[in-house]
Here is the input.
Amino acid sequence: MLEQVFKWLKCILIVVVMTILVERFAFGFTIVQGLSMQPTLKNDDKLFINKIVYLFTPPHHGDIVIFHPPIDERKDELFIKRVIAVEGDCFQVREGKLYINDQWIEEPYIYHEDYQDRLYSITSGIVPKDMVFVMGDNRNDSNDSRCFGFVPKKSIEGKADFRIWPLDTVHAFSSQ
Here is the structure.
């Protein structure tokens, strides 16, 4: 009888350890907090996060990423934004319109309201090596690369692949 209990405990321990390893290093879940990604993501949406994708491929334009912001007092937090420009891209945000390598980019995913032109730190430039430029889909209500600068690729924790909750809005995300 005692031998059977130890076998069950061993199986349970293996499952728990494997679950922790998979959640920590391969896949995970997160809950959206805030309005910066509306209308694509809403407050309290539950997302499936792919944590291994960027081991094999770099971030792409349109990817929705989870990352630690390059802000000293907020480095322990996780932000969620859309990759707008990747290393080597020349970008410009002008009158609410995005230009990548001198081409206007249509962005059907953004929250459409009158763009409020603010004194952002960065609205144009060339993305440095091993960095990305990110912005929220709700451009008037987003603390993003326009404020805090470029995001190192090594700070990216993963890519949002699916919205899994609420059930009536389950959706797979793809790069735009």
